[in-house]
Amino acid sequence: MRSESLAFLQRLLNTPSPSSAEAPGQRVWIDYVKEFADEIQTDTYGNALAILNPKGSPKVLIGGHADELAFIIQYIDENGFIYFQPVGGHDIALPRGQRVHIHHAGGKVLGVIGSLAIHMQDRDKKSDAPAWHDLFIDIGAENQKEASKRVSIGDLVTYTVGCEFLTEEIIVARGCDNRVGTFTAAETLRLCSDQKKLNACLIAASTIQEENGLYGASMVGYSVKPDVALIVDVAQATDIPITNKKRFGETKIGQGPTLSRGSVNHPVVIQRLIGVAKRKKLKFQYNTDPRSTGTDADAIFRTRGGIATATLGIPNRYMHTPVEVIHLGDLQVLAEWLSAFAIDLDKEDLFKVKI
Q1: pTM of the prediction?
Q2: I want to staple 33 with a disulfide (CB 3.0 to 4.6 A). Which of 50, 126, 249, 334 is the partner?
Q3: How far is 148 from 144, CA to CA, in rounded Å?
Q4: What's domain 3-68+174-343's superfamily in CATH?
Q5: 167-212, pLDDT tens digit by residue?
Q6: Architecture, CATH, for domain 70-159
Q7: Residues 6+ apart with CB under 8 A from 82
């Protein structure tokens, strides 16, 4: 991966972007894509769009969501301990013993999520998962008054961990879900901006609040009204010892991005993507969506009477944890694939199921 692209990816992953407070990450994204776009747009809630060849046809949307999992402060007790609720789909077994940043008034307050020492636990009693209201954050405050000077009800909270390298090609970070998607959209735009012949209007999108309910995608799908939408998110990598491939399929990091089939995924778009990948000799894997994709595609495909949509994924180990693992090669292949798809389009290309 070229050094400028890698530095951009690291900035994205290291910039907190919790659902409903994505603006800092969106600024990083816009600062990068503006060099390659003819137009930059943002909307009421902070979705970001970078447009190349705005008068072109067909109109192609390539999108990922900017937000990451977070927590939100709900209550501060008389002793200064802070209680919170999850934002997005957390595993309740993970937070205890983690360091967090509370995002308050433009700054960060360090805290730790409390955990009872093993010496103080009743080892003869079954250890049940806690309820969310049993978990608390310690910021070292002496009482409620002191804590309330440093944080507020409604402040958002993220894990402190950033991006690191396991190998030269494999990285670990929180929030790979789905800054790798917004990265891919940006890189696709960059690759297409070097082409003299681009019939399509290409719109790279970094959407908000997917983890809360696909909210940003609903807004963008309606306002942009693309002819075709390619949604990039993470895909469950099952190449670890504790997964059941008979239940979840086989997906490996470093073996190429995934292409989803079934349900939301438009069969004509799928076949076109497969054809491009074979001609370019790009390696990819299949994923299946029997009923829905669980991504922004679910919101976009049914907008304005139906938008031809496909879902592509970056294999991701340990999804929705602070230690998500991806392979940089999968990102590069997907950006090349999507740019080749866009460049291959003619003005007359339509995506419609033939009856």
Answers
A1: 0.96
A2: 50
A3: 6
A4: Zn peptidases (3.40.630.10)
A5: 999 999 999 999 999 999 999 999 999 888 899 999 999 999 999 9
A6: Beta Barrel (2.40)
A7: 73, 75, 76, 102, 111, 136, 137, 138, 139, 147, 151
